[in-house]
């Protein structure tokens, strides 16, 4: 029988680690957002300088940190459920110790997305579709992305991935893997579902402004609401309608508000 005090301590350590990761990620994201806004206010001409290797690395770190900041709040309930399931399956040892390995797998999945996003960011900027490295795409492309994102909110793929994120217990029990490597693999697996649920919302950062802090915060709240609130599925579908209408209006020549 594991000492309840040890279980409580490990649970608090996991929560503290998640809170620290999220706080550091948000601090860096806010810092970059403020710096980007300050630089943009001084710019008259769009940035046209070709990206260097340092630029690519910097942008990857920026995307990864931003994804971690946005996704860690919504994955925290699943992480704690994972810890409880591990406690029940392992009658000895430290059942919460590998939980951060699960988190690591989850973050690796989003780091993979960040690498793709960085390359897309580079391609859009190099092709003249973005005004700045951390800016937003031209209105026509923005409108198309909004429509695609809105339609995606109604697809079976979105619904299946959202159902998984909202109710992860079945996945954790049916796909359980022991050990630290198993925890990482489970984290990757869950991260893949989370990517399937949220990737189009993250793509909207190209529409709203890659480092537009109010929109980054808004999308974080939307993702959290979809995954945790009782009416999360309805929120997702209503958002889909809003995005489609917004995209049509933008293509028709209306200005993108709030950016």
Automatic annotation (TrEMBL):
Alphabetical list of InterPro entries matching this protein: PpoB2-like
Source superkingdom: Bacteria
Stretches that traverse the bilayer: 56-82, 103-124, 136-154, 192-215, 235-257
Keyword Transmembrane (UniProt): yes
Family annotation (Pfam families): PpoB2 (PF09948)
Keywords, comma-separated and alphabetical: Membrane, Transmembrane, Transmembrane helix
Protein name per Swiss-Prot or TrEMBL: DUF2182 domain-containing protein
